[in-house]
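Dear Dr. H.,

I hope your travels went smoothly. While you were away I took the liberty of generating a structure for the chain from your last submission, since the lab meeting agenda had it listed for discussion. I wanted you to have the full record in hand beforehand rather than looking at slides cold. The sequence, exactly as received, is reproduced here:
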Amino acid sequence: MSVSSQTTQTLLKSPSPRDVILLRARGHLGLLFSLSIMGTLLFLAVAAPLLSPHDPYLQDLANRLQSPVFLGGSWEHPLGTDHLGRDYLSRLLYGAQISLLIGFAAALISGLIGTTLGVLAGYFGGRVDLIVTFLINVRLAMPVVLVALALVALFGGSLLVVILVLGLLLWDRFAVVLRSATMQVRSMEYIAAGQILGTRLPRLLAKDVLPNIADSLIVIITLEMAHAIILEAALSFLGLGVQPPVPSWGLMISEGKEMLFFQPWLITIPGIALFVLVLAINMLGDGLRDVSAPEGRN
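The corresponding predicted structure, in token form, is as follows:
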């Protein structure tokens, strides 16, 4: 067998980048664990109307503050009831919808803004880069929590307002990371070849630049999702986020704080749910970074 044929067979047998990523993913316990947790939470959120034993908004003052089953309560309300007699399991399931919706929507809005600015700054450089860098510095000088509190207090605490406020405040990490990633990609030979061949700029950015920075983009999306969920819970806890009677986990913690020494499970249950969701999202981002790194990480 000739050397050229051996080289050809070796190239044909070499795994593609996609195969390498899938192989790494199958052996990454953290990624598999986070995917299972996220899949379970997504299923519970989507199937909340079918799984909820009661209406999450239905009040029953005669059965208020019932204990969960594991503390001697009844199976009619497996996780007990709140101070208005509303079923806690039903509110917890519907609260997953609120947290995931805010996380996805806020990350999408901030991702569109930050990715656009970062890619433009990294590709064009010069004055465009100076303008985008100035905008990033202005954004970093603004404390997110204080600005979010002020804006939500000014425009109201509806679900739409919370999503828009968080989406418009969390784009800086996208811009910073993708600006650097685009600068690295811009120096590649295939970008120069596309420019020489006269490829239109939108097509060049969409076909050659964005696919090569997608791994960084995916990781940042997961981080900002977790950030947005935590901020929404903090705003709702302070009474300036999602307003009652919407079953937000932050609002559930806020409503249960007055019963902390008598019914601590009112805070513990939504607190654990929030912790598990944010932990799963962060582990998902860390796992995606590990399997998508060119050199691989252990």
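Two observations you may find useful: The chain has one domain: 41-54+77-292. The chain has 14 helices and no strands.

With kind regards,
E. W.
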